[in-house]
Amino acid sequence: MKLISYNLRKHRAAAELESLVDTYGADLLCLQECDTADIPAQIAGLRLADVTHRNRLGLAVYFRMSMYRPLEVRSLGVKKSLHDRVLKPAEERMLGVRLHDIDQGRDLVVASFHAAPLTALNSLRRTQIRAALAEISAIGPGHPALMVGDYNYPVFKENLSQKVKEQGYELTLSDRRTYTRYRYFRGHYDFATSVGFEIDRIRTLPQGRSDHLPILITAHMTHPTGRRAVADAVA
């Protein structure tokens, strides 16, 4: 499987999605900061699983119809930052989809995530991430899961990695920074947390109209018997 995750920066990079899917052969697409009233039902052969419905700028997940069958969708409203309470940009910060892999006969969970902005504390973002991972575990208990998106967590990621590991997940960064807009805030913002996957590489893709760069994840999904089933994920 191949999955692309991309923060569109208030929907500005939406026109790039078809080219990205075609160029990298993505089978899954996770979006943040998209105008959910202005995204198509299909993008380059991928079908929309669902979007968040209470956000000014929301989340979306697409899947390749020939590879996956959607089984369940859940969105999650997490603890709000002051930014959220005043400007109300996002009620739901996680959108998870349980999919059935048709060829392998297995279920997996894919989620798009967008943490509170830098005006909030890291402690709040950790609370949001913890709640999102708990919800993912509830969607597909025991199944491989991959949550990708904009974590807004450029510093002290070692602490976050330890907290994520305590929940049974692994945190993986891309090979280059993913945010470039402000000089003093550049760094790794977009990455992945996973369970049941062996992440081989996360590659940062070229920048488009967004201040975030899309990332490409290559991974192997762990087989229940201990063997590996190939799964290439682009995030």
Q: Please provide the ordered H/E string of secondary-structure elements.
A: EHEEEEEHEEHEHEEEEE
**SSE-based structural type:** alpha+beta
The named CATH superfamily: Endonuclease/exonuclease/phosphatase
Number-wise, the strands total 14
Q: Proportion of β residues?
A: 35-45%
Straight-line distance between termini? 11 Å
What is the gyration radius calculated from CA atoms?
Answer: 16 Å
Shape: globular
The largest sheet is: 8 strands, mixed
* Average residue pLDDT: 87
CATH architecture: 4-Layer Sandwich
| Sequence stretches where pLDDT stays below 50 over 5 or more residues | 225-235
Q: What is the number of domains?
A: 1
Highest CATH level, the class: Alpha Beta
Q: What's the number of helices? A: 4
Name a few traits of the molecule:
4 helices; eight-stranded mixed beta sheet; globular; six-stranded mixed beta sheet; alpha+beta; 235 residues; Deoxyribonuclease I, Chain A
